[in-house]
Structure formats: C-alpha cells, structure tokens
Amino acid sequence: MMLLSPLRSDPRAVLAAANPLAKLGAAAIVMLVLFLSVDPVTPLVLLSAIALAVRLSGIPPRALLVRCAPLFVAATGAAFVNGVFGSGGPSLAAAAATGLRLIAIALAGVVAFVTIDPTDLADGLMQHLHASPRFALGALAAFRLLPIFATEWETIGLARRARGIDDGGSWPSRVASFRERSFTLLVAAIRRGVRLALAMDARGFATMSGRTVARPQPFTDRDRALLLATMAIAVGTVVFGHALNTWRGLLLQ
Amino acid sequence: MADPRASTSSSTWRTVDIVVAAVIAVAFGVVFWAWNALWATTSPAFTALPASQGVLYGVWLVPAVLGGLIIRKPGAALFCELLAAIVSALIGSQWGLDTLVSGAMQGGAAEIVFAGGRYRSWGLGTAVVAGLASALAAWLHDMVVYYPDLDIGGWAIFVPFMLVSAAVIAGVGSYYLTRSLAQTGVLASFPSGRTQSRV
Amino acid sequence: MADAIGIRGWGWRHPGRAAWAVRGLDLRVERGESVLLTGPSGSGKSTVLLGIAGLLDRSGGGESEGALRVDGAVGIVFQDPETQLVMARAGDDVAFGLENHCVPSVEIWPRVHAALASVGFPYPDDHPTTALSGGEKQRLAFAGVFALGPDILLLDEPTANLDAEGARLVRGLIAQARERGRTIVLVDHDIDAARPLVDRVIELAAFDEAVVPPRASRSPAVGAALVRAAGIAFRYPAAERLALEGIDIDIHAGEAVALTGRNGSGKSTLALLLAGLLRPLRGSVTAADGADLARLRASALVRRVGTVFQDPEHQFVRGRADDELMVGPLRTGMTRDVARARAAELLERLRLTPLAAANPFTLSGGEQRRLSVATALATDPPLLVLDEPTYGQDRVTYAELVALLRASRDEGRGIVFATHDRALVGALADREVRLEAGRAA
C-alpha cells in the first residue's frame, strides 16, 4: 500500500492561483458557521457553495468524491449515532443535520488543502502572518521527507518479513508489530532530521537575523474579494435560515 | 551550576529542535495513515463500536506528549501535534482544516500540562496527565463537531475507554518510547537522550 | 595570513560522551591548497570538518580545547544527498542559502541560475527535488553551496552514497572548484580515487591493513539450483511502468551472482523478488522443492533465504545484538539454548563478541553491517541475498565483507547481491547479470 498521491487540480482554474491564506481563510469562515449551526438547512446551502468552489478550483469532482469515500462512511456512522441516541429521542432531522454538517465541514477544508502547495503556504504564513521563518521552514523541510518515510515504512515491512516475523495473526501480535515498525521508522526519521538540521545550519539557517525573500507572494484584490464573498455567503446563509426559522445554533440548545 | 549558554535548558529552539519535532510529526503522519489502514480494511465493524473507538484513540495523541518529552522546549507539544494534524490532512485529504482544529486543541492541552510543570517535569506521571488532557481536548472537539446532539449518556461507554487509552498509549507509551529511543542513541543531541552516556 | 585554516592542539568532545572525538590535532591548510583527510572510522574526520565549518554545538554541552582559526567563508557538502536538500523545488533549494544570508531579493535568482549552470544541472528551476537521482541531488547540493561563494570547501565523503556515474560527476565538480582556487578539505575513504584531486594527504590515525586477497579461481563447486525465477514481471503499486519484465534467472548453490545496472534498472527489485519478499506480477520465484517463495510464511521463508538490506537499521528488532541474532532461529523453532549458542558462535565469527550486549542502533556503520549479515546467516539458509552491501562502507568493512561472503559461498551457499560497486563485482562475483530499464541487458 503506497501513500495516496495528491489530487491533481487544474492550475489554470480561477481559484487555483488564489493566495493560500485566502483559501484557508475562506474555508475557515465556512467551517466556523458550520460549527455553530446544527440544523440541516445550513450545511445544505453551504454545500452548494462548496460545490461551486470545487468547480472554480479546477478539482476533478469525481476523484474528490472517491477520495472522500471514508468521510462519507464516517459521516453516516455519526449521523446514525446522533439520530438514534440524540437528546430528544430518535430523529431523522438530527441524523441528517449531523451527517450533512460533518461532510460540509470536512469538504470545506479538503477543497482548501487540495489546491495549496506547501511551499506557498509556508511563504504566505511568513510574509503575511509574520510566522517565524525558523519554524515554518523547519516544518517545510521535514515535510519534504514525507514520501521517503512512506517508502521507508514499506521497506521496514519487507525487512521484517525477511527476519521471519510479522505473519499477521492475532490482534495483539499485529499491534505489537505495528508498534515495532513505528519505532524503527521513528529512529530513521530522527536520524534524518538531525542530519537535515545540520545541513540547514551549514547554509546559514542558525545564525540568521532576518532573511530576504526569493518568492515574494502578493495578496491581491482578487484574494480579498474571495474572502469577502465567502463571508457574505456564510452570513447570508444564517440570515436566510433564520428567516425561514430553520436555523438552530450550537449554543442555543 | 548550569551553564547559562546551554540552550538545551533554555527556551530557545535550536534548528535541530525544530526540525526533529517536525520530523516526528511527519513520521507520525505516516504512522497514522498506517494505523487507519490496519483497522479500516480488516474490521470496520469492530471500529464502529464506541468502546473500540475509545481504545484506538490514544495513538492520535502520541505526538503531543512525545514531542514534549523529547524536545523539552515550550511549544513542542503544540507544534508537534499541530504539524502531525497538518500532515494527516495533506496525506489523507479527507479531514482537511478540521483536523487542524482538533490537533491544535490536543496539542494545546498537552502544552498546558507541560507548562504547569514549568517545563521541567518530564516523568511518567506528567506524561500520563498530558495524555489525559489531550484526550479531554479531543473529546471536547468531537462533541462539538461530530455529536452535538448527544447527551452525556451517549458518551458513557466511549469516554472511559478513551481515557484509559490516552493514559496508557499516549502517556505511558510515549514515556517508554522516549526511553527506548534514547537507548538507540538517536537522541544524543537532546537532553532526553542524556540519560544514556556512551563511550 | 597565508593559511586558510590553522589548527593547533585542538580537541572536541561530543556532549554525553566520555571519550574525546579528536584530541591534540595540529593542521594547517594554505589558501588555495587541497588536502585529503584520511583515517579509519572513528578517527574524528567528520568532527574536524564540522569544527572548521563552525557547526559544533557548544551550547549542547560539548567541550573543546586548543585553537582553531579559519580565514574565509566556509561551505560544506555532506555524504547523504537526501538530507541536504531543504526545499521541494530545485531552484528554491539553491535560493535557500541566499535568503538566509540576506542577499537582496533582486540578486537571488541570477545567482541561483549561475550556480545551477556552474554545476551543469540539467533541469529547470521548478523541477521537484524528489524526482532527482542521488548524483543529481548531490549536484544540487553543490549548487546550493557554490551559490554562496565560499573560499573554503569542505567535503565529508561526498561520493559514498553514489553510484559510479554520480561519483565521477562529483569528483569533476571538486576538480573544478580546485581550479578556481578554492581551499579544499576532502574526507574520502576511496584514497585512490581522491588522490588526483588533492595536493596533500593527511592521516588522522593509522589504518589497520585491510587487504582484499586477490581473486581466487572461480568457485569450484557450483551445485543445484536453489531458486528459479521464470518469466518475472513486477510493477510497484501506483507506478505506470513495469519495474521488471521478462526476467529468467537461476541461482545455484556455491555461486555468487551480481545483479548490476544503473539506478532504476530494477536490480534491487529483482533481489527482493528472489528473496521472496515481493510478489511478482507475472511468473514465479520457486525454490528447489517447488515452493513459491512469495507465498511462504515469514517463519518458513527465513529458513530458506537470508536477506541483508541496504540500511541495516531497517532490520533491527531487538535492543541487544545477541538477542537480535536469536530472533530468526527462535522463529524457526530452535530451542532457546541452541539459539543462544548459535548467536554466540556468530558473534565470535564476525568479531562482535564485545558488543553482544550493545543496542544495535548504537553500533558503527561497519559493525551494523556485520551484525546484519550475521542475522541473515543465523538460520543457516542456503541462499543469501544482499542489497548494496557496501553502500557507504569504508574499505576495512569492505574487505571483511568480501572475505565473509567468499567463505559463505565456498561453504556451498548461493549468494545474490545487487550492487553498483564494480570492485565488489570483480572481487566476488562468479557471474554477473546486467539489468537495463527492467530487462536483462
């Protein structure tokens, strides 16, 4: 089993080139409203907005749905639990509300992440939110090693088979194998991390006071427009729900 | 008398502190994915039970406690768990931004415990308390996001299992994991590795 | 001052260790001079380089003595290509150092392009760093260092993890830097290859004599086939191309077979298939008695094949070397006492007895390699498979490995090894199978 390869989105799509912070900000706004609303109508409306965002971001909708299949399964499970055991007795509306809300919250975040490049995100955090370059770049450098760790996990599995262990079998032994395999991965990872830190210091990372920027990242009017439009849609949905008397808040139970 | 220049006991983060904290988080991104795969493909029915969910919970909380125990600097628990959440979000592309919120809460809770120990208490007891705090934060998040309608009764089965899992896996487990890692010598650059002196 | 580097009576003790890594070192390197630092593993060569580069962390509790003066900007290239690259895209990685040194933004990209051109980097700026070969990654690392225009260039085993082509390329870059008048301090275990690049050789400590005995005649007793691979094809999950196609190969008892080819040719993949660790897409790998190796349980497999991985640490599962050696035998049903005796015997044979209680992860590279070979031999399998056994090893370990593998072969074992080390092929292989892009060449 190899890691899932990233979902490819069309780089020419309207929203694809938006600033990563704008995308995250928009997703956060939508998520916040969803957090605070527990009726079925709000997530329904916002899901259509999310579907629009999917289209505008150039994400292939089919691949996205396939990728999110486990999410739908989990949402169904949660919907069931909430619907049956919820306060106020069994309720289909409660089940629907829970399921839709979960899907919408998750999808909003997924859409944002799928089109964000990690380097761009780090640049955005450093240039616009003044995040510490040492933490942002340290994290980014470690993140680059992710595919290597994934391959290493597989290699460790083969190496264990070569040692005569890990034949599957009972649950306790599988969990023990998992634990040992994770340990070996951690050792390898930390070794790499120490070497990587050394190489970064060798190129001036430790002693720098301030640093210049090779990839200046603008925050354009289009990005501002994205944020404003999202805010308008979010607030509008709540107002709309209120007017129809369908809106239910999380804290007003 | 401690050397005032010794950064391992100060709150300044060296490059190696940052990168190794990050690397632990990224490695756990892979571990989480494998943990999911281990349970999801083999017994989905088992994992749907609230008791089982509770039992399996501890693994997600390990980066928070482990990050703190290994790096021993302010912010390590939060940074490590948050980054592990970001990596999970980027790999699995299923949970997205919400994973970050959850991760921030879990890491933050562990951080508070370590801060309460003035970043000098790294023993088994502290590890267990940090694990429990992290679990409670996770539960709070899940209540709000996943099960807002459920009253306390619905949680009665899940919570005890979750707390035990957090204490055992995230607390005790992280503590002994740190010790085992120290014995391999990989933590030589860290104070957590100093208990092992080699020739 | 004519000297670029002046070291007198210098020593360094790593934090947490009792012994000093280096003590009482005197070393002078003139401006523009090129020197080779040699010595057995553990003689402190890397520590000296880190000291010159100013990378030893005193804040962590380490201790130094004596004087170390360096005149000029220092750049350092390390052994592992993977952990020197910081960014996801090639151009960004070169720019990383420039950003850290507060080079004005407008100057960054011209310098990046100049550096990439000077090392002959063949790809555009946005080429992903994960898609580079080892040699190309090392080239990019050089570019990152050259972009900062160092006066002094330090190199810590820059070719140890590369294949022949990558090594040649890197040596070319070193020669180029030398021509441009940079001061060079090189650490390299391959003294013969490094000699043309330097003016002077400095030995930090004397070597034990590690001589590889001359090639004996071809193994006398080639026996029955141990493993047959017929019509093998293999593809990694989520890959587009086949990694291997149409491979037929038999391995016999008493012969050593080398699998060679460039990176990506499939030699490691073939080794893992012959070891029964991967399942072929088409065809099968069967043992002499007809058993399909890939379908055997691990505890049954380990009785027939011992595998040694490129990174020994991937295979360690216990906290003590002697326990490590007992794992395989116990899995095959040996009693504890017999297994313990076997472990002691192997430790003795591989000169690891003093390290019986040591944690395998704390051993040196050469010791880990010996331990990993010992674990593969512990269950006394008729077939031994090794993936790049001399990767990153110095010449002492290399000589020991050759002697050990020759002895194993002469005892009647079959040996398969995937390698890009031509010297190893010459010293050990009875037969060579060359692979090119997944097919027999």
Q: How would the blueprint of this fold be written?
A:
The complex is a heterotrimer of chains A (253), B (199) and C (441).
Chain A: H1 20-36, H2 41-56, H3 61-67, H4 69-85, H5 92-114, H6 118-128, H7 133-144, H8 146-162, H9 171-202, H10 221-243
Chain B: H1 15-42, H2 44-48, H3 50-56, H4 58-71, H5 76-92, H6 96-116, H7 124-145, H8 152-155, H9 158-184
Helix pairs in contact in B: 1-4, 1-5, 3-9, 4-5, 4-6, 4-7, 4-9, 5-6, 6-7, 7-9
Chain C: E1 3-13, E2 22-30, E3 34-38, H1 45-53, E4 63-70, E5 74-77, H2 90-100, H3 105-118, H4 134-146, E6 152-156, H5 164-179, E7 183-187, H6 191-194, E8 200-203, E9 225-234, E10 244-252, E11 256-260, H7 267-274, E12 282-287, H8 298-304, E13 305-308, H9 321-331, H10 336-349, H11 365-377, E14 383-387, H12 395-410, E15 414-418, H13 422-428, E16 431-436, E17 439-440
Parallel strand pairs in C: 3-7, 3-8, 5-6, 6-7, 11-15, 11-16, 13-14, 14-15
Antiparallel strand pairs in C: 1-2, 1-4, 9-10, 9-12, 16-17
Summarize the structure in words.
- The complex is a heterotrimer of chains A (253), B (199) and C (441).
- Chain A contains 10 helices and no strands.
- By secondary structure, chain A is mainly alpha-helical.
- Chain A folds into 2 domains: 20-116 and 221-243, no CATH class; 121-202, no CATH class.
- In chain A, helix 4 (69-85) runs antiparallel to helix 5 (92-114) and helix 6 (118-128) packs antiparallel against helix 7.
- The mean pLDDT of chain A is 86.
- Chain B is built from 9 helices and no strands.
- In chain B, helix 1 (15-42) crosses helix 5 and helix 5 packs antiparallel against helix 6 (96-116).
- Chain C is an alpha/beta fold and 441 residues long.
- Chain C has 13 helices and 17 strands.
- In chain C, strands 13-14-15-11-16-17 form a 6-stranded mixed β-sheet, sandwiched between helices. Chain C has a 5-stranded parallel β-sheet with strand order 5-6-7-3-8, with helices on both faces.
- In chain C, a hairpin with an 8-residue loop joins strand 1 (3-13) and strand 2.
- The radius of gyration of chain C is 24 Å and the shape is globular.
- The termini of chain C are far apart.
- The mean pLDDT of chain C is 90.
- Chains A and C meet through helix 7, helix 8 and helix 9 of A and helix 2, helix 3, helix 4, helix 8 and strand 13 of C.
